[in-house]
Specification:
Two copies of one chain form a homodimer. Chain A contains seven helices and eleven strands. The first copy, chain A, is an alpha+beta fold. The first copy, chain A, binds a DNA duplex through α2.
Chain lengths: 268, 268
DNA sequence: ACTTGACTCTCCCCTTGGGGCAGCATTTAT
DNA sequence: ATAAATGCTGCCCCAAGGGGAGAGTCAAGT
């Protein structure tokens, strides 16, 4: 029994194009090729081989690998090594895709939270903040350096991040150049590394104000919030916090005019 | 400040080749191109865009998708839809790879079992078989039809298969053409479908003989095993079993001379 | 001013696993 | 005998670049 390429294609569910390619690459050679017309004819043994090739393709082997395998081996027990290797490859891909999936999840989650409660209020507010687990990287420098801190945190704790980026300011007064800052992410879990400390960040009562717009103009909001605090004669605690509700994103830098930062000054 | 392509490549960790491609595809257009020399020069804004592109690439977006996104949007909140879609894609890939991984695992496992205990004995043996969960497809036909049954089972229960393929023979005597056969796989778990029944297959005491070689010659082994049974005056039960310790594989058909089949005839 | 070495340019071919089409030859069924 | 279906080769195309040839350009040292 012999089959023309069309029939063979239907039998094996391999496209005619693929069959011609496999012939050209000497992976699946028709049992007979008409010397004059070039017509390809396939037989039963070709069907078996085609099945093997299809399965190896499903298992993500490349045509080059498949060619090697079918030329050298004829039984599963002989290709255990290759199967184990391939499985490792696949596990790596799975791990990689899982990371991507988690990263995307985080972005979606944070953005959805923003959509849920569009912060329309610009008034000073008193509120209670809960204790949370954070990963923090403490540094001395300027505000503009915090990006590096967040980059470091994201690289090390990317998959455990659980909320919005924050900065903690440990100076009692405003410092331009040598500020004592800790960049933080809320995390689900994690261990200290050399540079990063993971710990509970105590909550408490705080005075909060939403600042909308570029960070460079945040001074005005600080003025407003301290005005309120002085009026009420509250005693402040350090560190104070800035929560980046909407800042430069994971993907886009975004438009600074739309940045939203929450200032939180904790009181006794 | 402007950067040559080499420096920009170092800054962004994108290869020069990629940068030229992105320019050609109008994804990342240098801030300045020398009209006479064709030299590309990049600026700070290009760095931001490059970062965005890199991240989208990591998230598995194609260049075409990236082009669309960066042309139309400038904030994460605007591409939530695309992110959700991409996440679905990635979940599909993960699911697919997991299936492959499980299939390969199964093959490796079964082959390793064969290596562990090379069945060297060809003598009739009495042994105890444990109860196991099986998925079975019952049919009437010839032995040569069982392949289809196994194909069906593998398709539906592939990821739950937990041992070697078996056939159960429900006829008391030998039948050539219209035999009542059930093809089975041991499975971890599973639910009945219209054609396939999942259930406990009771174990018990059986007389076993390993048959090595093509199935066509299994008659001799049956003769031997029934000789033994008659000699001992055992009462046999139905169904009897054939366990395909080594038969046509998942990948290769293999050489029938090396096939190993265990005949199990249960006794009271 | 010149040379040298490092950069950069365009162009072309290669990769994987085929898809699609043109133009022609052959086979099969009516 | 003729038409419809099938098959052939050859060419161009996709994504996302990699590699290299051959030529032009830039900056620094002499």
């Amino acid at each position: 029994m012999k089959y023309g390429i069309g029939e063979f294609s239907r039998i094996t569910s391999l496209s005619i194009k693929s069959l011609r390619l496999y012939h050209e690459k000497e992976i699946l050679i028709p049992s007979e090729v008409d010397q004059f017309t070039g017509y390809r004819y396939y037989n039963e043994r070709n069907i078996e081989l085609a099945r093997t090739i299809k399965i190896l393709k499903e298992y993500d082997f490349s045509l080059a690998e498949i060619k090697e395998i079918i030329n050298e081996f004829s039984d599963e027990s002989e290709i255990l090594e290759q199967l184990i290797e391939k499985k490792k490859d696949i596990e790596k891909k799975i791990a990689n895709y899982k990371n991507i999936s988690l990263s995307i999840d985080l972005i979606i989650k944070l953005e959805k939270e923003n959509k849920m409660k569009p912060e329309n209020e610009f008034e000073v507010e008193e509120k209670e903040i809960e204790t949370m687990l954070v990963a923090g990287y403490r540094m001395k420098g300027k505000y503009s350096d915090v990006g590096k801190g967040f980059g470091l945190l994201a690289k090390n704790f990317g998959r455990e991040i659980n909320g919005k980026a924050m900065s903690l300011y440990y100076d009692a007064e405003y410092k331009e150049n040598d500020a004592d800052i800790e960049t933080c992410f809320p995390v689900r879990k994690g261990k200290d590394t050399e540079e990063i400390s993971v710990r509970e960040l105590k909550g408490g009562k705080c005075i909060s104000l939403i600042h909308k717009g570029p960070y460079e103009q945040i001074g005005e909001s600080y003025k407003k919030i301290f005005g309120y605090i002085n009026e009420k004669s509250y005693k402040t605690l350090i560190p104070s916090r800035e929560v980046y509700i909407k800042g430069p994103g994971m993907i886009f830098k975004g438009n600074p005019k739309n940045y939203i930062t929450e200032i939180q000054i904790f009181i006794q």
